[in-house]
Amino acid sequence: VQLQAFGGGLVQAGGSLRLSCAPSRRTSSNNAMGWFRQAPGKEREFVAVISWRGGSTYSADSVKGRFTISRDNVKNTVYLQMNSLKPEDTAVYYCAVGRKSYAGSSPADYMYWGQGTQVTVSS
Question: Could you tell me which residues come within 8 angstroms of residue 68 by beta carbon, excluding any fewer than 6 positions away?
Answer without folding.
Answer: 48, 57, 80, 81, 83
